[in-house]
Amino acid sequence: MSKKHSGNEGQASRFAENGRNCWQTAHASRLAYLVDAAAYFRAFKAAALRAQHSILIIGWDVNSRTLLEYPDEADPDVPNELGPLLDHLASRRDGPHIRVLNWDSPLFYAIDREWVPQARFDWFTHSRLCFALDDQHPFGASHHQKIVVIDDSVAFIGGIDLTVGRLDDTEHRPEDPRRRTPDGTAYEPFHDVQVAVEGPAAKALGDVARDRWTRATGQRLKSVESARDCWPEYLDPDLADVEVALARTYPAWKGRPKVREIQALFLDSIGRAKESIYIENQYFSSTRVAHAILERLEQSDCPEIIAIVPQEPVGWLEQTAMGVKQRCLLARLRDADRNGRFRVYVPVVGEAGDVAVKVHAKVMVVDGRFVNIGSANLNNRSMGLDSECNLAIEGEPGSATATSIATFRNRLLAEHLGVPAGDVEKEIEVRGSIIETIERLRSSGRSLVPFPDVPPDSIDTALAESDILDPAAPAEPERVAHYLAGDKAGQMTFRGAMVRLAGIIAVLLGLAALWRWGPISAFADTGSLEAWGEVVRGEWTATGAVLAAYVVGGLAMFPITILIAATGLLYGPVAGLLVAGAGSLLSAVIGYGTGVILGRNALRRLSGGRLDRVSRRLARRGLLSMTIIRLLPLAPFTLINFTAGASRIRLRDFVFGTVLGMAPGIVAITLFSGQVGEVVRAPDVLNIGILAGLLLIIAAAATWSWRHFVHIQAEPDDAKT
After folding, report:
1. Is residue 56, in this structure, part of any structural domain at all?
2. d(CA 658, CA 111)
3. Closest alpha carbon to 364 in 423, 415, 314, 305
4. What sign does the CA torsion over 451, 452, 457, 460 have?
5. 656 is in which domain, residue-wise?
6. C-alpha to C-alpha distance for 278 and 265, rounded to whole angstroms
7. Residue pLDDT, tens place only, 374-396
8. Is the pTM above the cut of 0.85?
9. Is residue 243 one of the residues assigned to a domain?
10. Is 588 left (phi over 0), alpha (psi -120 to 50) or beta?
11. Cα separation of 579 and 543, whole Å?
12. Element (DSSP H or E) covering residue 310
């Protein structure tokens, strides 16, 4: 820890203005910067063990199996996993009431999260431990705050969730055997920052957390008073008696106005910087922030701007939502940097510097005297869509607070460069430049390396402009469809959708009638067709031929809907569902492979530019975009398959997105067409009644889906530039 400073200079922050770029300022009797999760988890555990009344945990992802200390460093008499520790604390006589609020994430996050966390936290723990899921958000939004409050006395805020895959120390050893998930999977070096505060600032963060709990559960919590000192005994503060500012992001939702204090604070600090802006962030895809930096780069008094980011976003959603936009914005800023004032680096470790550190921190230090730390990424979502909370501190030039902030920044740089913090401080004093200091101290091993300069192509640029998965405000799903499919999708009305559905049903019923009573019956009576159907259903070779028909039809651009309906008629509702699902998926994968073989350039020539339009609809690589475009059939089945392969969307995302997106349609078509076949074969009251019931269910489901998703209050997106 750095030397403790007193921050009581009696000077109000020139950045923080209540009601505009911060919610309120509050006094912190003690404050400590906790760099990397090993430091944070240890401090959290120590403070939690001292709790008397309340522990309130608010997170984007909270996992009961999170290790809080390395096993060889943990006290064997105290549980070292989060869930058992909280249960241990709640089970003590007069133990604290513990509440855990976790974002209720959509299905496509499930593979990266703990299954049935409520069972682990609620069902198998003490009654004083309560777990809840937060689903009170507009469509597409998430709860992203990472706050822990203990007895309203000590609080933690920053970028670190109490979840797996985070525990790492400042050494970031490339092959640390301790860096494992509960199932034994190794994960990459992980860098992040949290802040511990004590006193009124902790109570203010408690108010933020209680408000979030009330929004999610409807239950109002009271603040608490504790006579016990909950600050970890071993933890030396970096600052004492300092004022901190709290800023938030909330979207407009259910009558509550939007709150964009964090965005205003970022923009103000960028606009007023004089010497340097040091950034550590998981993403760099905020349109407004990039525009503010672009404006500074065009000015003669532009400060040095240094950004530390991960080598590439990790995970399908990150790559889809932010990766493309980040590449485009960084390329644009590099082009505008004519005076060498802008640099972007990636931290690496290992003897050859070949292992990238995952940067998950959300830190900005301006002029070495203003620091902004919290949960907000530099992306559009954090500026207006997701719920966020940041903490900021400012010191006057030459003050103890400013010295502490500069020391913290130098400490971060020293960690990345693999040198003592004193070397960084000395070089900055001599050279007067952070960029020159970095270039002077860079090495071939653990160090900072320039972010890869890969110019975006035309498709990437178009995708980046859409902001489809990184929106700055709540949006109606029909706006998503508009971006995916172009202007025509946005014109689809409820009446039009129902007319289309009714038309499909009418065609199927008409074909059935022709089969039963029309001229077709003269050539193929129901008895012979039924006998042929029995042969097909009973022979695996015949089913193989049906699956082959899906593949051939998919490559020949034959409408997949007709094949699915025919399968339902031939096999019946249940077997037809399985065969149609298998055939559709097989055809999709073969089409994907064809796209991989052809490649983007060849397919672009063959499609005459249509590939670019479909690529924009796919919104780059990702499960969510695949699911949406399958669920809303906005482009031909075959063209989607080819384009996905040519664009190198990950096969896992393509397959899962195809399954999730096509499942509702396949179920509806096969059940309905299969029942039509049953009516043709046996037109009795029961079969006709089942068919009518299916019609009502399909119509009701379509009506509910449309009404449920379309009637969401959209907020004007004023974050666009």
Report:
1. yes
2. 16
3. 305
4. negative
5. 529-710
6. 15
7. 999 999 999 999 999 999 999 99
8. no
9. no
10. alpha
11. 8
12. none
